Amino acid sequence: MKRGFYIGRFQPYHNGHQAVLEGIAEEVDEIIIGVGSAQLSHDMQNPFTAGERVLMITRALEEIGCPFYVIPIEDLRRNALWVAHVTSMTPPFDICYTSNPLVIQLFREASISIKSPPMYLRETLSGTAIRQKMLLGEEWEQCVPPAVVEVILEIDGVSRLRTISETD
Amino acid sequence: MKRGFYIGRFQPYHNGHQAVLEGIAEEVDEIIIGVGSAQLSHDMQNPFTAGERVLMITRALEEIGCPFYVIPIEDLRRNALWVAHVTSMTPPFDICYTSNPLVIQLFREASISIKSPPMYLRETLSGTAIRQKMLLGEEWEQCVPPAVVEVILEIDGVSRLRTISETD
Amino acid sequence: MKRGFYIGRFQPYHNGHQAVLEGIAEEVDEIIIGVGSAQLSHDMQNPFTAGERVLMITRALEEIGCPFYVIPIEDLRRNALWVAHVTSMTPPFDICYTSNPLVIQLFREASISIKSPPMYLRETLSGTAIRQKMLLGEEWEQCVPPAVVEVILEIDGVSRLRTISETD
Amino acid sequence: MKRGFYIGRFQPYHNGHQAVLEGIAEEVDEIIIGVGSAQLSHDMQNPFTAGERVLMITRALEEIGCPFYVIPIEDLRRNALWVAHVTSMTPPFDICYTSNPLVIQLFREASISIKSPPMYLRETLSGTAIRQKMLLGEEWEQCVPPAVVEVILEIDGVSRLRTISETD
Amino acid sequence: MKRGFYIGRFQPYHNGHQAVLEGIAEEVDEIIIGVGSAQLSHDMQNPFTAGERVLMITRALEEIGCPFYVIPIEDLRRNALWVAHVTSMTPPFDICYTSNPLVIQLFREASISIKSPPMYLRETLSGTAIRQKMLLGEEWEQCVPPAVVEVILEIDGVSRLRTISETD
Amino acid sequence: MKRGFYIGRFQPYHNGHQAVLEGIAEEVDEIIIGVGSAQLSHDMQNPFTAGERVLMITRALEEIGCPFYVIPIEDLRRNALWVAHVTSMTPPFDICYTSNPLVIQLFREASISIKSPPMYLRETLSGTAIRQKMLLGEEWEQCVPPAVVEVILEIDGVSRLRTISETD
Fold it and tell me: Which one of the record's GO molecular function terms can you name (chains A, B, C, D, E, F) (predicted)?
């Protein structure tokens, strides 16, 4: 049994995440997906709640053919404790898939294996770029799995993002 | 689509929980299981980490035939905010299954539907009773699903509980 | 201008508090009332929210004839910082009216004047005793100012207390 | 009985706030004023403590002819819980007066009525502009009610702001 | 270079602690003393502040002939993160001296060496027993190093303990 | 007995700090060194843990000839409570040595004596400048005491800083 861990903020979950996870699914027996900054929502960088993000991810991965766990992870704001925090909230895992330099350094100091997955169309497929499209009224739907479009429509997510982007 | 929410501390997850969830599985389309007091572990009432409990529950429910989410929920120590906390961490749900009077009151004030599931062998099947058996060296394995026995053995959980129960 | 500070949990605000405040009103120009443990509600010792307690106190003091402030004070769980916490949340005051030994010690170490007001019918007039009457269905209404009865009826407070007192 | 809620940081309370509250006073029976970011003080954007701000507001509203509550509200840094936090700290209210897009979105999702009051001389009457005048030694006194001038002089507030604005 | 870690609440620091540390001093090159529950003070179990306890310990160890560090450690209330918290606040160490079962279990799971030092007159030399003597007006001075007597007299510690032990 | 307090983040501890402390050592009987933002580490402005910084300082001051305490101080994010927080974590002191305007203002409001020590080669000797040298591969070793070079090499600190400075 080999378990891999992958963490992101998923604001929103998009095709780049999906591509990475499809790659991981071929290397491990089970995937643990950490939903980072779980306590944040309703702000410009973090419009969606942890629960909404759990829903997006679970829906999008229904056909991935590899068992997975989706776990909200609240920020701790104490880097030296972060690995212990993550491992206390998740089933045990053997490898962490990440390209984030801080996550790499923290797991390295904890002697946990790390692998940097290839990025998929990084420039256009990023949460920042997709939220920008939503704000400008551009096409964002083709950047995320169809199940994510459904969730965002259901919660009226684009309208939420636009309202909180206004200035008073 | 109807989603039901069920919360417990699951220290450990046992056959009583399993029976309740099998009942709920027949009434809803998806189940959300909240793992309460997620931040607690390694104490007499809460020996297991949230991640270990997520693992127990997921393993035990593999055959339940109803999609489910397992979500760690950290305590907030502010009852008036607890429903908002829970709903921010979970996909939207239609009904809360609980027999806990405080949970009933808090969801009632938030106008969320509540249903109290029948308890299954409450006196013998409780976390407290099972942890007591573990401490006394009595048979506890028949009180929990086989998958939970495996998880507890793998993490050497009984030994952990016994060590922290000693006095210095 | 002389301001006096008085703190309690006011679960609920009762005739004993009212009698003490009527006494203080004759000694100072303005009264600051701190609503302690403001973050607690919906538990057996703290059934009412800070906002509900602010409402009870304000209504009951309408005719006291002395300007007053009602300020929720969240617990800090760090005694050495508590006086600084209180004074940051309140207008400046000259004297603290209290009979609580910890509050006396903390203000004394901060060189703030203290006066212990006479207690009024302490045995029968206490939050504990009144909550007990509510649970047992005994007459509690004569223990609190009429305005407090109204607030508790309006929020269905007795029913809330009874529900959370049940065992599951 | 109709209660209206109005929130701000009030760093400091100024004539723009006063004008808005005078307008609200004609539409409701009671006003609840939330003093936001109550835990902040002694920084460039938040020089005054919650208690000092409570004092400014209370003094300035003495003649408003409408009962009011002034309630410090500490930041929660969790937007999804913020409405529950506010409502737990305040008496119940029917309408929220605000022009802040995030507050609008959060109350809207909680199905609470919102009304955006007309702004009064927004460009010159803002906390930022007034703090800038204090730093530059310009006339700021005519931007705030006379009672606020008195409070700021009493606590030597301009000197505090200037000291913390220095670089070491 | 071998460093040993020893943790306690030291309410107050007494001859039993001193005897243990004198033993450790012969086994390591440097000692790290963690002052646990550093955030607590002014309560019946924790009358002294972290700073007062740092002073007691430093004074009492002046002649121990082994370099030492005295580090306040605030409680985290999350056992799974506690070892990471401790190691982030202290210089690196090779061995933990403790008889506390929870500390043993947590360091064991982190693969850090543990050694249980012999206890010295445990029944009479305990913080609980010494605080009890202080309350009852019995002789407590011979239970602690002379330097600790001085610190407690200087801060009027016995009077503080007695005041907070009163009932209102 | 006169004690002086000096606080910094010490990221890392450098020759400027050393020069200031050598000056203070001639004016007081004991020095208390507060290690600020103790909870931060592994970020660009705060690469080192509190424990690593305690080690740097203690090593570097071995020959200073004045007793000293090194105390980690976690941030409180509430300026009005900060002085009470500091004084609860440290032995009592008579004077605070600081050039930080906020620290000056907070201690001044608490009526504690302040003295601004002369800065030593401020432009080149700053944590920011030294961290920049580490990132660029320039000579940083001559900016810190030899004992600090040893600690940073031992923990592979430069490599840590470089890794977390990368972009993903």
Answer: ATP binding
